[in-house]
Amino acid sequence: MGKKLIIMSHVSKRFGDQLVLDDFNLYINENEFITLLGPSGCGKTTCLRILGGFETCDEGTIEFDGKIINDLEPNQREINTCFQKYALFPHLNVFDNIAFGLKIKKLDKETIHERVMNILTMVKLTGYENRAVSTLSGGQQQRVAIARALINRPKVLLLDEPLAALDLKLRQEMQYELKEMQRELGITFIYVTHDQEEALTMSDTIVVMNQGKILQIGTPEDIYNEPNSRFVANFIGESNILSGVMKDDYLVEFCGHEFECVDKGFKKNERVDVIIRPEDFDFVPPSKGKIVGTVDSLIFRGVHYEINIMIAGVEYTIHTTKYRKIGDRVGLSVEPNNIHIIKHIDHA
């Protein structure tokens, strides 16, 4: 990664009595695709709006490229925003919508034409320059909005759930296209979503937020494979969260049996939570499994079956390509590196 481009230090923001950002500290690298991920109301859009200059923070500082920008207006920042509602000008065609910012800067016609045509190629809208935006599909309007945000060559592009209005297939296409654009342009993308799959697909770094605080920062692989709390484990994908006891370094007990694991540093016999992803269980004959249960329900998900198994009154979720009938008795095994241990917190 490049240098630290943005540093948010001890940022807090209230709306009335509600604390929306609570002593928020985050740095963002140059040329990074970073995603703020969390449920509605967690503060991610407020964070984006503060970066863009549309809101001011009550406390803390925003540093951009070595300068404090708290008091700068949005048009004074080298930051552009792409909103969920595209906010295109209905009376202008595609070309003029994209060129709007360049015309305000009073660039010459030749430069404007060259830059608009280049960006149209990048967003795969070559030949659409004379079309009315009202005749475009949702995906095409989204591309125009992104092109308009990128045409001024900002150092940072803020994207507030820009794909939320698109259907699933188009969303998936646009996810890959946005990632490719970001790589090609080499600028920083700060992306807001509540869609975990979108975050995992696109990001270099994910910031998981809840109630105005950062819970975990890491690569998609880190966040998915090593969640640091029940909230993160449940929010990023599905998880089986089991009560366990850490018998020793690399040894945990759950479901009445001891299992080797790769975690250490807990007290002996400390209560812990054990996280196992649904795809990390393997079926074994009941005679060879430490964990044995009965298939309670089964759903075909297209690429895998989602099977719920009852074990001593507790329901476990398994994702597998292997079919099992309801009522089947099954054994389960799990590799040590697929057992993740976190501290047990009551009412987490």
Description:
The model has no long low-confidence stretch (mean pLDDT 91). The chain has helices spanning 44-52, 94-104, 109-122, 138-150, 168-185, 196-202, 220-225, 230-235, and strands at residues 4-15, 18-29, 33-37, 59-64, 67-68, 79-82, 156-160, 188-193, 205-210, 213-218, 240-248, 251-254, 257-260, 270-276, 281-284, 291-300, 305-311, 314-320, 329-334, 340-343. The chain is of the alpha+beta class. The protein is 24% helix and 36% strand. A hairpin with a 2-residue loop joins strand 9 (205-210) and strand 10 (213-218). Helix 2 (94-104) packs across helix 3 (109-122). The chain has 8 helices and 20 strands. The protein has a 6-stranded mixed sheet, with helices on both faces. It has a 5-stranded antiparallel sheet with strand order 13-12-11-14-20, with no helix packed on it. The longest helix has 18 residues, at 168-185. It folds into 2 domains: 4-232, P-loop containing nucleotide triphosphate hydrolases (Rossmann fold), CATH 3.40.50; 238-343, Beta Barrel (OB fold (Dihydrolipoamide Acetyltransferase, E2P)), CATH 2.40.50.140. The chain is elongated.
At the first level of CATH, what is the class of the largest domain? Alpha Beta
The third-level CATH topology of the largest domain is Rossmann fold
Mean pLDDT across all residues, rounded? 91
How many β-strands, per DSSP? 20
**Count of DSSP helices?**
8
Within CATH, the superfamily of the largest domain carries the name P-loop containing nucleotide triphosphate hydrolases
The low-pLDDT segments are: none
